[in-house]
Amino acid sequence: MDKQVVHSARVLAVTVIKQAGRIAKERFDRFEHLATKDRFGDVVTEVDRLAEELILNRIRQSFPEHRIHSEEAGDNGKHSEWLWLVDPLDGTNNFTIGLPVFTCSVTLMYRKEPVLGVVYEPMTDRLFVSTINEGAYCNDNVMRVKMNPNFRKGNIGWIQGHQVQNDKKAVALRQHIDLHFKRMLRLWAPTLQWCMLAKGDIDGIVF
Question: pTM for the full model?
Answer without folding.
Answer: 0.90
